């Protein structure tokens, strides 16, 4: 105990000196810079000055020394006077005359402290008398604190609304001081002595109340508000929740000691262990973080979001554009999901056929998204209204427009889907973000919708800019390709020159048998090279439009498979008769491109299958491999882009050329791929009979027009 008393005595000495310094500085600042025309100005300066002197005397002597008691009484009288003069700021010191009586009573009780000090020095010769004097003194202090707090309540509540901001700081400082004194002397009365711990920190309390009193001495202080950032409020509330939990657990653990004995000790240790495990599992949880964040925003702030912080985070997420970062599509989802702490999301973008398709997913691998995830009617509704779709509202039957009928079943049935946010660029729907439900879900409100809408417009502009940039890059690459064609033409010219030279030499050496033999070999090789090169070059820009004849898909598949005999296992697993109208050579070339790609990504002995089927309307060839597969992002953004290849050293034009050949012949090329499982390319054409039926109405309308 003596060591503990010495420690608290040292702490009190330091805090009292610090409190004296702060109060003295506050008194000087209030005297020089405070509003001198305010009625409470002189009283506040006197109260702060006397508080500084009281702190110095208490640090030098002790809190129970006669001189410290005298200066504490003088300080209290000055504070009571300051409280009374605060009423004069709006003239209530004259209209509320009963308040004067209360103030006079408080002054009288404080003056009685001097009388009790005189009695204690001269007449309290026994311990019983000293204890009695101490109890009466502490009871007087409690009475003064209670009455002063009541006066403060009347001061603030009864003030006109226009004067309350001016009184806020001064009233809060006085309330803090008397609230502490009330608790301090109440504990002292019950304990029969001054508590050493609370006594030591009275200097810190004096410094704390000096600051709002000094701030409140200027009328401009009414514009000063305590506005903690959301981060500070969130961290403070988190610490408060954790501290409260720990205090409750410690209190319960301490109360278990009443059981006594070994069993009581075992119960206490077991409870502490369980409480620790629960804390380790619960305190870091995402659900607790979400609850704390929602509670702090709901009760401490006028607006839900700190827009400056949200904008900085959004900019940082989108701006991570180096080579190691995620693609823009994923970063767009994350930027939107971070607003509401959603754990995952999807991005739907327009496809080649006009509908929407899955473009990217962020941390949401378990959800199964169909090939046509959003109906055209819902997309049109998004583009027309730009509203944010709260999926929970739709599930309970509420709707703003016609989303009850248009919402797809996969979204309605997936409980984790929380909200759909349209991305509008110049009133055109360029994408839809699907957000997952956060760990601490809540109902979306107008502020969520406004922020979603603004961020969605910004993301739409970023995605549109990226699309335009890719188009420019593709155009530049085609320019480069044209330059490469110039080199090819140069090679053709060299071949032509060689042939011309050969023709001239033939005039001179035509009778030489060796020359004739070499000439035939050279002619054959040059002709083969030219024919192959011209055949490839001739297809660019034509795509088989000039030649449309009946072609059997099964025969084409069999011919292509035979070209790889002995090189790689390529087999036709089904060869249904499917006759279409197309250019056989062009279709053969497109199929070769796709089969070669399948071989390149497959193991040496892993077979590639060709499956030819017909449903009576369309014929199709499926090229199936079990290679490495492709991601959804690459299928959408890289597979059919010229000069983009997933293979090392690949030129990246095979799949693009195959699709263009098929398209120009009236067919369709689709792809299904999963990483680690393989890829399926699907080439489909209308059967020849169907094509003829489709052509007849067109030809009849042309004849009628003629």
Report on the architecture of this protein.
Pfam families: HATPase_c. One of its GO terms (cellular component) is plasma membrane. GO terms for molecular function: ATP binding; phosphorelay sensor kinase activity. This is histidine kinase. 63% of the residues lie in helices and 11% in strands. It has 25 helices and twelve strands. Helix 7 packs antiparallel against helix 9 (202-215), helix 10 (230-255) crosses helix 12 (286-300) and helix 22 packs antiparallel against helix 24 (654-664).
Quick structural overview:
It catalyses: ATP + protein L-histidine = ADP + protein N-phospho-L-histidine. The protein has 25 helices and 12 strands. The protein is of the alpha+beta class.
Fold blueprint:
Elements: H1 2-33, H2 41-60, H3 66-86, H4 92-95, H5 97-122, H6 127-157, H7 164-191, H8 196-200, H9 202-215, H10 230-255, H11 261-282, H12 286-300, H13 307-318, H14 328-337, E1 345-350, E2 356-362, H15 376-385, E3 389-390, H16 391-395, H17 403-406, H18 409-413, E4 417-425, E5 428-436, H19 446-509, H20 513-539, E6 549-552, H21 553-563, E7 570-575, E8 579-582, H22 584-600, E9 608-614, E10 618-625, H23 632-637, H24 654-664, E11 668-674, E12 678-686, H25 688-705
Parallel strand pairs: 7-9
Antiparallel strand pairs: 1-2, 1-5, 3-4, 4-5, 6-8, 9-10, 10-12, 11-12
Helix pairs in contact: 1-2, 1-9, 2-3, 2-9, 3-5, 5-6, 6-7, 7-9, 10-11, 10-12, 13-14, 14-19, 19-20, 21-22, 22-24
